[in-house]
Amino acid sequence: MAVRIRLQRHGRKKRPFYRLVAADARAQRDGAFLERLGYYNPLTDPADIFIDEEKALKWLRRGAQPTDTAKRLLSKRGILMKFEYEKLGRPMPGTDVDEAATETEDVQPDAAQSAEDETGSLLTEAAPDEATPESDEEA
């Protein structure tokens, strides 16, 4: 069964209101659908768009193909870009995961340097201990 993410028209004459739905490609425009993903109201200024990101991503992962208008709405909300990055296996730029990865890369060299500093200080501390028995022998 081919699944499409598309708009379903509601509202009265000359007052459109659309629902974004996942539906079988063979179903009628305003007919049966599998799941409601959000809505789009073009009459408000700016246009009112709500899309449940998790539901939309779920259907995109399953292979649902958005129509041109649905693709534009998903892009406007950033869902399509998130899906593309997910497909490539990369974190979205500007996300916490991306920032945490950069912080971890910065921390690792510092940790290695601090370990070297500690080792150096241990060697320096060991040298005076060796010198103390010599001073006891001299006395």
What topology emerges from the helices and strands here?
Elements: E1 3-10, E2 17-24, E3 35-41, E4 48-51, H1 53-61, E5 65-66, H2 68-77, H3 79-88, H4 96-138
Parallel strand pairs: 1-5
Antiparallel strand pairs: 1-2, 2-3, 3-4
What features would you describe in this structure?
With 139 residues, this protein is of the alpha+beta class. The chain folds into 2 domains: 3-88, 2-Layer Sandwich (S16 Ribosomal Protein, Chain: A), CATH 3.30.1320; 94-139. It is 52% helix and 21% strand. The protein has a 5-stranded mixed beta sheet with strand order 4-3-2-1-5. It starts with a strand and ends with a helix. The mean pLDDT is 80.
What are the key terms here?
139 residues, alpha+beta, S16 Ribosomal Protein, Chain: A, 2 domains, five-stranded mixed beta sheet, 4 helices, 5 strands, 52% helix, flat
**What fraction, in percent, of the residue positions are helical?**
40-55%
Shape: flat
The number of distinct structural domains comes to 2
CATH superfamily caption of the largest domain = Ribosomal protein S16
CATH topology of the largest domain: S16 Ribosomal Protein, Chain: A
How big is the Rg?
A: 31 Å
The string of secondary-structure elements, in order, is EEEEHEHHH
CATH classification, class level of the largest domain:
Alpha Beta
Biggest sheet record: 5 strands, mixed
Summarize it.
With 139 residues, the protein is of the alpha+beta class. The protein folds into two domains: 3-88, 2-Layer Sandwich (S16 Ribosomal Protein, Chain: A), CATH 3.30.1320; 94-139.
